Amino acid sequence: MDRLIRTIVFEHKNKRIHLTEIESALKERGINLFADQSRQHKFIKTVDTFIARGILEPLKGAQPLQQYGGLPDRYTIRRDVIAGVGAPLSPEHRNELVSLSPPINIDYYATHGDEYLRDRNHILRINDLILRRGECEVLTVNERSYELFGDEKALAMPDEASVKGALILRNLRLTLVDIRAKQVYEPFFWIEKDFLNLQGKAERTVLIVENKDTFWTLQQAVMDGVLAGIHLVIYGEGNAILKKFEYIETVGGVPDDRYRYFGDIDREGISIYNRLRARYPEYDIRPATALYAFILQKAGPAGARPLRRPQRAGTLSPFLDFFDAETGDAIRQIVTAERYLPQEVLNATDLSRFGDGGLTSAL
């Protein structure tokens, strides 16, 4: 969008331009700013950058437009500034660029002189770090981001930051390893029983539970010995587990452990499982078939309720592939009818009344 708006401004017939004229020119090129919030956000940031660079100079009587984030509505176009953007670097700056240390790659900035001057201070800080990286401790991504860019979000969430640090790294063809930064993972909540003690001694079972109430019920049953054979219970927190599962190594989990997932019987719960398994194939995460069968036996397809809100259609495999034909058909019947059974069908009373009942061995 940067180059397109620059072209629109440069080719505008008058010396002055209104924001709505830029919007109209974009619409003629098939870009409707108000049909896509992300495009509208990029437009506002681009115009704001042009103001900072002097490409667009707000008129004294310009009025703020709320639909454009409060940007002034009218500008003088500085074509002389536009013509200078992207101009070759001075000999002094080119020598400075060439002298940057490997593994910094200078190809991009050698042909984007204006961007080098814009990012120069950050690039020089990165170069200083590269020169002394043998002496530098590894910092978290946000810590290193603040050190290099003065904004802790510049690398992990550049769209919310004052500096697009991640883009600067890409332009230099550097990785987090190159700048001695490590990605840390948001921890999940977990309860363990003999999980650490059994490491390397016996097979361990990890149970991931989608919802909070059922997590508390099952972890209490594990701690009380009602569900023997489960050694670690993780609160999946819905979709959050897709990223949080990376924390498993921190708590001592290894791919050789047995991993079982228990969630709601609905499209969303099944989708969470399918995506979790696809993202971490080395862990061979399987559905906790016995727990799903238990709530089906207790409530049955007839007890399934209509969905509170529409859910996105998706494949039911590989989730259903782990169930026998009868159970799989019952689950398919519920899901295709746009109904659901929450995992809260299983409660503490059921567990205390029936005990393990072979549930653990059948997981």
Automatic annotation (TrEMBL):
Pfam families: JetD_C. Residues 202-282 form the Wadjet protein JetD C-terminal domain. This is Wadjet protein JetD C-terminal domain-containing protein. It comes from Methanoculleus methanifontis.
